[in-house]
Write a sequence for this structure.
């Protein structure tokens, strides 16, 4: 019985994965999340029953896709922060550390594009917005703790709590990233912006390692 359940679980996971991939492909093709369940099922090669056994709606699917993409970005950022926090590998300056962090992130334009569309929808739909809330996620707190530690490495302490520091840094990065299509030096803009927020929300205090 357990083997049957395991196979069934793998099958469902694969179905969910193919539906997410189909939705991502349709978004890349159209730039919208206005697809129908039928459109997504046709692209994925499934029936409506397969769709509704995994998601309640197209909105639910795109929120799941965004959360998956965001998790990938966060985990890469955590790993890069951990590298910077290692005694023998961290950059000598805060600006250098920010540059290394951003360089370690995966290609994020697709995630940003989807996030922008979802944010526009969230602004007009409070119920939809609840699916994108950052405040209640444990990930933001963990990210904030790492930024606090990074500041300490460079002899600085935050003037806001760890969660607010993380949200501010993420907001700065996303804001700078939003200009990348029209900024010929987008990488530098992102580094300068994120470093400025980290410096602005910290003060000299703890001795660096």
């Amino acid at each position: 019985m357990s083997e049957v359940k395991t196979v069934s679980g793998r099958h469902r996971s694969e179905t969910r994965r193919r539906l997410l991939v189909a939705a991502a492909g349709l978004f890349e093709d159209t730039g919208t999340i206005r697809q129908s369940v039928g459109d997504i099922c046709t692209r994925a090669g499934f029936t409506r029953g397969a769709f509704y056994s995994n998601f309640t709606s197209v909105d639910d699917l795109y929120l799941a896709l965004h959360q998956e993409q965001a998790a990938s970005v966060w985990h890469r950022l955590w790993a890069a922060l951990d590298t910077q926090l290692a005694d023998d590998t961290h950059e000598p300056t805060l600006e250098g550390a920010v540059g290394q962090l951003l360089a370690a992130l995966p290609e994020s334009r697709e995630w940003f594009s989807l996030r922008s569309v979802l944010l526009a929808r969230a602004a007009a739909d409070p119920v939809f917005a609840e699916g994108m809330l950052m405040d209640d996620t444990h990930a933001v707190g963990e990210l904030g703790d790492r930024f606090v530690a990074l500041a300490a490495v460079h002899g600085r302490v935050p003037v806001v709590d760890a969660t607010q520091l993380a949200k501010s840094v993420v907001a700065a990065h996303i804001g700078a990233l939003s200009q990348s299509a029209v900024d010929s030096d987008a990488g530098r803009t992102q580094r300068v912006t994120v470093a400025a927020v980290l410096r602005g929300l910290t003060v000299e205090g703890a001795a660096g390692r």
Remarks:
- The chain has a mean pLDDT of 84.
- The beta strands are 156-158, 202-204.
- The chain is about 70% helix and 5% strand.
